[in-house]
């Protein structure tokens, strides 16, 4: 009894998944997106860190609930953080999609994994965007002792 082991460099042949396909090349678009989003994310992340750690009086010790409340009161920083969130989640889920496509060979399991990645990305983007644009550190109708000290008494 002999067993043959294929060379590890032998590409896995997906059954009729990539042969004879027409239309846009989504893998190429995903590849380009990863490169472009990576460059933009580097700029966004270093801008975020520079503002929070270098240009804020008090440095890292000044970052607290009030700092975030004041930062999210400015539409520039709301959009900055939302774009950073969207790109980071999409970049990460596209990378996970690539890993699943490369290493999960059973079609049913691949569909489940890709569905879980897509739904996780959708939930993270939806909740993060909602929180960023609706964040209010001083909500109305709350007892004064529950509010942070920087909120004006009403």
Characterization of the model:
There is one protein chain. The protein has one domain: Fumarate reductase/succinate dehydrogenase, transmembrane subunit (3 helical TM bundles of succinate and fumarate reductases, Up-down Bundle). 60% of the residues lie in helices and 0% in strands. With 154 residues, it is mostly helical. Helix 3 (75-103) packs antiparallel against helix 4. Membrane-anchoring subunit of succinate dehydrogenase (SDH). Pathway: Carbohydrate metabolism; tricarboxylic acid cycle.
Rounded to an integer, what's the Rg over CA atoms?
Answer: 23 Å
Question: What is the CATH top level name?
Answer: Mainly Alpha
Which percent range describes the beta-strand content?
Answer: under 5%
Return the CATH topology.
3 helical TM bundles of succinate and fumarate reductases
Give the name of the CATH superfamily. Answer: Fumarate reductase/succinate dehydrogenase, transmembrane subunit
| Tally of alpha and pi helices | 4
| Span between termini | 84 Å
* Largest sheet properties: none
Task: Show unreliable segments.
Answer: none
CATH architecture: Up-down Bundle
What is the overall silhouette? elongated
Total domain modules: 1
Mean pLDDT: 87
Q: Could you give the count of β-strands?
A: 0
What string, H for helix and E for strand, traces the elements in order? HHHH
Helices and strands: which structural class?
mainly alpha
**Level of helix content?**
55-70%
Cofactor: heme
Membrane topology: Multi-pass membrane protein
Function: Membrane-anchoring subunit of succinate dehydrogenase (SDH).
InterPro entries: SQR/QFR_C/D, Succ_DH_anchor, SuccDH_FuR_B_TM-su
């Amino acid at each position: 009894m002999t067993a043959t082991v294929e060379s590890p460099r032998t590409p896995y042949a997906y059954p009729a998944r990539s042969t004879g396909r027409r239309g846009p090349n989504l893998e190429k678009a995903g590849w380009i997106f990863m490169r472009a989003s990576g460059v933009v994310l580097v700029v966004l992340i270093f801008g975020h860190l520079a503002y929070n750690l270098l240009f804020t009086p008090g440095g890292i010790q000044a970052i607290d609930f009030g700092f975030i409340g004041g930062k999210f009161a400015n539409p520039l920083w709301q959009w900055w953080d939302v774009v950073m969130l969207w790109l980071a989640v999409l970049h990460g889920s596209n990378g996970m999609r690539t890993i699943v496509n490369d290493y999960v060979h059973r079609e049913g399991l691949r569909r489940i994994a890709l569905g879980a990645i897509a739904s996780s990305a959708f939930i993270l983007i939806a909740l993060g965007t909602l929180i960023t644009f609706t964040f209010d550190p001083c909500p109305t109708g709350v007892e004064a002792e529950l509010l942070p000290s920087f909120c004006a008494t009403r």
